[in-house]
């Protein structure tokens, strides 16, 4: 026994509640514990105790007992007389046998850990633990799955990994409907029971390290699954694009595989400045000819069949990108991983440094260092030298330099050979895909249409035996692969499948290239679209505009009028700004991708102050605080100046938007800088700039109280410097943005904006998107979860549930939106939505939730009266049910003075608690 343990035992009294005697070299259960009859927690981890004495039964109040990592060989029966035990840990001992009596009496047990023993069998019978939530039996020698576990229907977590289980009965999981986490890894399983599909609450499933060759079809029912471990099983590897879809995509792939074929296919992306001969070179590679070509406007996509070591018929999808600068901001949507890049430079120009710097950096970022072949074209006209060694030292993904002539074919054979070699080494070449997938793809590619309705796509998949659910997984795979485009997360674009991606993207580029749009500094309307897109069907033009909005290329500035920020004048607008006493922040880029400021303007459009924006800057305002945000492409910096009482909060909003842009560009770690506040720097136009993350780390670690300024050589108080920013990695619980009253205030303002724009919305569902956008611009962390079912009129989706969360993910409230044309006593729509809001969506029992109703009635005053009466009598509505009965409803005319907006608050009882629902009814007619 260690001396300090002996001292601790001598100091014990009958009133001691918690005792920890870990790693104390105890060989016997200390007799001194006998007098501690009020003890609730006892931890004897890491000793050499072999037996537990009979007198332990007197410790009636004991709730937590850990005997982990001792020398116990038999389960101490006496322990099972302690009826108040909630947590029992007997892991890492030498237990070999378990008796059925071990699983009775502990009526309050919640967690049991008997892992890492020598248990070979858990007897048949019933585990009578009515409150048990966690059971860990990992690291034993079980050969059979213990059927007794199936009786513990309260179980939420079951860990039975690292055993020798080779099979599981089909009905083994029928009684475990509350299971959320199941670990069966590192056993000897060859197949899985169908009853696994009954675990609809399961969030984590680990099957790694087994011999499983296929998944049962019932896996489709695991609708809550968030994590699935399959490593170390003889299953087919999952294509990268499928893995990116998450657990449901992976399951769909395995369930669809069946009769399969290997896919030998990859993308070759030809990039470079304009007029360097990219299209000539593409034609020379494919056809060994150079037919008359025009400058590529947007993207040209061709198929090229070549021979590689893997396949004599390797399919190369060539994407030829237009080189005009206006296209650069869209590259982020098409430059992908698992692709080979051909960077073309013209030998007769000397501007290669600018070209290389842009293209090599953007490929490095957006494609995660995919391999690049550099082709020096037009050597028949002039040969220019290039510093290959320096470029390869900086960009290690360059795999070769080739001097070629697309015009006379010089060195084209060598370039083709290199392409064949490199494209064959891309990750996961030879993926196995369900044969039916390729059959569907072949049928779609044979169609002459540029696009088809989503309904027709689903019908084609149905004819090939795919359900709608599996068909949507497939369209997502095709989308990610770049074969077709299907934007499933957009309410309008989801209705079309673009069979020819270049048709859609080139329509966008047609607008970007329009001289009229350029002359109007990026502004266009439907009349202009009639001229610009005269070759495109009129009813498809809203899809083109939505695609631009999806790419964050434009936004609606007024009814039917849109603006492309990238086409704004580069000249700074005239504005008044007092630069003194500003909160300042800077981003310093090693490489600044195109379009960052344009995308930022689109994302913060609802905060823009008095239309003060230009190509490289914008002024935004939230309440009485303004921010000036500018970029300088030459210095590769983004500057932020903010003044007003809520400067730090507005900065958080700005940083959040920029962070999301950076993440989408695979550039999450852009250095952030903050100015020094020493006396010399405070009034300087060029203060010393600290690395913000370093200063924050110093402040959090409390390593130093001050940090030296390199200008004045004086110390600056770190916490005072950080206090100006008040930016933390996780928000504090009392942040005012999370106040339910603040959310109500913001929702009333957001609803007023919706009323201002109601006549602009030709597509009803776009109102829902506006709510999400407006809430985000006000700083709320929005989880836009679903848009499903039918609206009140049956005309469209028209409904959405929005969850507002703290930055750490904790829910704050839920907002339910739907359309309503009438509200008579027999109406079921309102009751159904209210029931969903209270009983289905909210697993946290949030104190206040919100309903926004888009009123479509001819007489809004009658609708509001009928709606109020309906809510007041909701308890008698059979559709609503008897859970969460209404205890009161009040009209809140004091919250706004708008005739077209009414607010009411209903109160509902739940186990003695009161839940509030705030109803905002808007006149959208």
From TrEMBL:
Signal peptide positions on this chain: none
Pfam families: COR-A, COR-B, LRR_8, Roc
A single GO molecular function term of this UniProt record: GTP binding
Reactions catalysed, as given in the entry: L-threonyl-[protein] + ATP = O-phospho-L-threonyl-[protein] + ADP + H(+); L-seryl-[protein] + ATP = O-phospho-L-seryl-[protein] + ADP + H(+)
Top EC group: transferase
Any Gene Ontology CC annotation: cytoplasm
Species whose genome carries this gene: Spirosoma linguale (strain ATCC 33905 / DSM 74 / LMG 10896 / Claus 1)
UniProt-recorded name of the protein: non-specific serine/threonine protein kinase
Annotated ranges, domain Roc: 259-426
Keywords, sorted A to Z: ATP-binding, GTP-binding, Kinase, Leucine-rich repeat, Nucleotide-binding, Plasmid, Repeat, Serine/threonine-protein kinase, Transferase
Enzyme Commission numbers on file: 2.7.11.1
UniProt cross-references to PANTHER family, sorted A to Z: PTHR48051, RAS SUPPRESSOR PROTEIN 1
Top-rank taxon, per record: Bacteria
Alphabetical list of InterPro entries matching this protein: COR-A, COR-B, Leu-rich_rpt, Leu-rich_rpt_typical-subtyp, LRR_dom_sf, LRR_domain-containing, P-loop_NTPase, ROC
SUPFAM superfamilies attached to this UniProt entry: L domain-like (SSF52058), P-loop containing nucleoside triphosphate hydrolases (SSF52540)
């Amino acid at each position: 026994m260690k001396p300090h343990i002996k001292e601790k035992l001598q100091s014990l009294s009958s009133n001691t509640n918690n005792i920890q005697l870990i790693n104390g070299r105890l060989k016997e259960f200390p007799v001194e514990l006998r007098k501690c009859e009020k003890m609730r927690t006892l931890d004897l981890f890491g000793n050499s105790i072999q037996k537990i004495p009979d007198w332990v039964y007197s410790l009636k109040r004991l709730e937590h007992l850990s005997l982990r990592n001792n020398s116990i060989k038999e389960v101490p029966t006496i322990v099972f007389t302690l009826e108040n035990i909630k947590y029992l840990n007997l892991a890492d001992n030498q237990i070999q046998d378990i008796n059925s009596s071990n699983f009775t009496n502990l009526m309050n047990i919640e967690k049991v850990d008997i892992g890492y023993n020598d248990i070979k069998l858990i007897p048949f019978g019933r585990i009578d633990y009515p409150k048990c939530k966690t059971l860990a039996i990992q690291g034993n020698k079980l050969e059979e799955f213990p059927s007794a576990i199936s009786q513990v229907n309260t179980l939420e977590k079951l860990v039975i990994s690292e055993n020798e289980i080779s099979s599981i009965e089909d009905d083994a999981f029928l009684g475990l409907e509350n299971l959320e986490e199941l670990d069966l890894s590192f056993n000897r399983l060859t197949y899985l029971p169908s009853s696994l599909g009954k675990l609809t609450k399961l969030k984590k499933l680990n099957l790694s390290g087994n011999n499983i060759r296929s998944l049962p079809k019932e896996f489709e029912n695991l609708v809550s699954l968030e994590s699935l471990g399959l490593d170390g099983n003889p299953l087919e590897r999952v294509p990268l694009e499928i893995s990116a879809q998450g657990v449901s995509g992976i399951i769909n792939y395995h369930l669809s595989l069946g009769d399969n074929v290997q896919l030998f296919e990859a993308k070759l992306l030809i990039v470079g400045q304009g007029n360097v001969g990219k299209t000539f070179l593409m034609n020379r590679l494919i056809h060994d000819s150079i037919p008359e070509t025009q400058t590529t406007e947007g993207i040209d996509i061709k198929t090229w069949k070549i021979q590689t070591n893997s396949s004599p018929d390797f399919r190369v999808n060539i994407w030829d990108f237009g080189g005009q600068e206006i296209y650069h901001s869209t590259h982020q949507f098409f430059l992908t991983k698992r692709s080979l890049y051909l960077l073309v430079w013209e030998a007769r120009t000397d501007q290669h440094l600018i070209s290389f710097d842009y293209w090599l950096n953007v490929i490095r970022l957006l494609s995660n260092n995919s391999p690049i072949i550099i082709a020096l074209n037009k050597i028949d006209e002039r040969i220019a030298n290039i510093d290959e060694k320096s470029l390869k030292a900086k960009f290690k993904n360059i795999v070769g330099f080739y001097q070629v002539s697309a015009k006379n074919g010089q060195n084209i054979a060598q370039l083709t050979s290199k392409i064949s070699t490199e494209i064959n080494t891309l990750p996961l070449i030879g993926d196995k895909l369900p044969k039916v997938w390729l059959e569907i793809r072949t049928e779609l590619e044979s169609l002459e249409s540029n696009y088809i309705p989503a309904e027709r796509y689903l019908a084609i998949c149905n004819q090939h035996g795919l359900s709608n659910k599996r068909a949507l997984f497939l369209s997502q795979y095709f989308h990610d692969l770049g074969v077709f485009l299907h934007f499933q997360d957009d309410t309008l674009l989801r209705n079309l499948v673009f069979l020819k991606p270049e048709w859609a993207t080139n329509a966008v580029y047609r607008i970007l290239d329009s001289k009229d749009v350029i002359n109007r500094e990026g502004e266009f309307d439907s009349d202009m679209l009639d001229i610009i897109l005269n070759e495109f069907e009129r009813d498809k033009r809203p899809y083109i505009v939505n695609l631009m909005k999806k790419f964050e290329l434009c936004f609606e500035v007024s009814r039917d009028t849109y603006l492309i920020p990238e086409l704004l004048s580069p000249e700074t607008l005239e504005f008044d700004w007092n630069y003194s006493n500003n909160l300042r922040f800077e981003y310093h880029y090693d490489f600044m991708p195109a379009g960052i400021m344009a995308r930022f303007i689109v994302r913060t459009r609802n905060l823009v102050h008095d239309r003060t924006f230009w190509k490289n800057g914008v002024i935004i305002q939230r309440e009485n605080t303004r921010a000036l945000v500018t970029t300088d492409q030459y210095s590769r910096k983004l500057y932020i100046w903010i003044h007003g009482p809520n400067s730090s909060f507005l900065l958080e909003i700005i940083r959040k938007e920029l962070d999301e842009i950076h993440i989408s560009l695979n550039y999450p770690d852009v250095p952030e800088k903050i100015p020094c506040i020493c006396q010399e720097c405070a009034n300087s136009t060029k203060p010393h700039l600290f690395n913000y993350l370093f200063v924050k780390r110093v402040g959090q670690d409390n390593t130093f109280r001050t940090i030296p300024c390199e200008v004045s050589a004086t110390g600056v108080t770190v916490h005072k410097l950080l206090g100006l920013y008040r930016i933390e990695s996780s928000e504090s619980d009392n942040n005012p943005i999370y106040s339910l009253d603040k959310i109500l205030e913001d929702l009333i303002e957001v609803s007023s904006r919706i009323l201002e724009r109601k006549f602009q919305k030709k597509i009803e569902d776009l109102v829902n998107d506006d709510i999400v956008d407006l809430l985000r611009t006000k700083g709320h962390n929005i989880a836009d979860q679903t848009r499903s079912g039918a609206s009140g009129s049956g005309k469209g989706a028209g409904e959405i549930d929005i969850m507002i969360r703290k930055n750490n993910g904790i829910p704050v409230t839920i907002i339910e939106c739907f359309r309503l044309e009438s509200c008579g006593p027999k109406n079921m729509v309102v009751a159904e939505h209210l029931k969903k809001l209270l009983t289905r969506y909210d697993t946290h029992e949030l104190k206040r939730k919100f309903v926004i109703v888009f009123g479509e009635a001819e007489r809004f005053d009658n609708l509001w009266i009928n709606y109020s009466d309906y809510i007041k009598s909701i308890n008698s509505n059979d559709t609503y049910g008897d859970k969460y009965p209404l205890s009161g409803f009040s009209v809140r005319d004091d919250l706004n003075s708008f005739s077209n907006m009414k607010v009411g608050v209903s109160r509902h009882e739940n186990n003695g608690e009161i839940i509030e629902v705030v109803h905002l009814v808007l006149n959208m007619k």
